[in-house]
Amino acid sequence: MRKKLYIPGSNEPFRLSRKRIEDFMTCPCCFYREIKLGKGKPPSFPWNLNNAVDELLKREFDHYRKIQEPHPLMHQENIDNLVPFQHENLENKTWRNNFKGISYLDKDTNFEVCGAVDDLWFNKDTNEIIVVDYKATSKKDEVNIDAPWQISYKRQMEIYQWLFKKNGFEVSATSYFVYCNGIRSRERFDKKLEFTIKIIPYKGNTDWVSNTLKLVHENLNSEISPDLNNECEWCKYRNGR
Q1: Domain for residue 9, yes or no?
Q2: Fewer beta carbons within 10 Å, N or C terminal of the chain?
Q3: What SS3 state is found at 109?
Q4: Is residue 7 part of a domain?
């Protein structure tokens, strides 16, 4: 299905996903060409194994959501004051659906900002909800969120925090990554892949989001495409380098 293009001056709100905001942060030129001119990049390859881990984790945490008890991983990390958050929009999968998610209409830009979360937890001591994201990989070293390219993970969390704040929820500044790391050291496959799981806290800051929406608005309302980005592989390809 062809994505809807941005039309300057339209009174209809333009749906701006968390992924599109990240695309703008990565390369304003490619973002402009795709969202305004319809010249997109080829679709990325589906991450089917990651999606399977994601789905199984959701089912597992949903069990503890129903009985309102901490997941064993929470006990392991000494955060057993937390439980999976109960809300009808998690139960009916609205907030987890990429085509629905949670949204907020930013009146300054007329963007309907949206995003689909993996999970939400609830802090019984502070009555705050906590944004949670699942990640899966397979590497020899212990997982972390310290690499420069993982800034996109952090911005993802912060946009979700911003969205829930704008929808009237009390949101904790601390979020959590549930990071699954596939074990490679086993002698045999035996039709199963085992993981270690690490819960990584991250304290977010949402102050940048509103200003970034204004920059996105300026980008899309300009009559001139941004310059090619020398750090962008797609810009280099278009420029024949």
Answers
A1: no
A2: N
A3: coil
A4: no
CA distance 196 to 214: 41
Can you give the length of the chain in residues? 241
- 58 backbone dihedrals φ, ψ, rounded to 5°: -60, -45
Distance of CA 215 to the CA centre of its chain: 20
Neighbours of 196 (CB within 10 A): 11
Q: Letter for the amino acid at 53?
A: V
Residues 6 or more apart from 2 whose CB is under 8 A from it? 38
From the number of C-beta atoms within 10 Å of its C-beta (0-12, 13-18, 19+), residue 157 rates as buried
Whether 126 is in a domain gets the answer yes
Q: How many CA atoms lie within 13 A of 78 on its CB side?
A: 0
In a domain, 177, yes or no: yes
pTM of the model: 0.94
The residue whose two tokens read 């057993």 is: 80
The C-alpha torsion from 45 through 50 and 52 to 58, rounded to 10°, is -130
Nearest Cα residue to 33 out of 44, 20, 14, 19: 20
Tokens in use for 102? 């949670």
Provide the residue type at 156 as one letter.
Answer: Q
Question: Using CA atoms, how far apart are residues 1 and 40, in angstroms rounded to an integer?
Answer: 13
What is the count of structural domains for the chain? 1
pLDDT digits (tens, 9 = 90+) for 99-142: 999 999 999 999 999 999 999 999 999 999 999 999 999 998 99
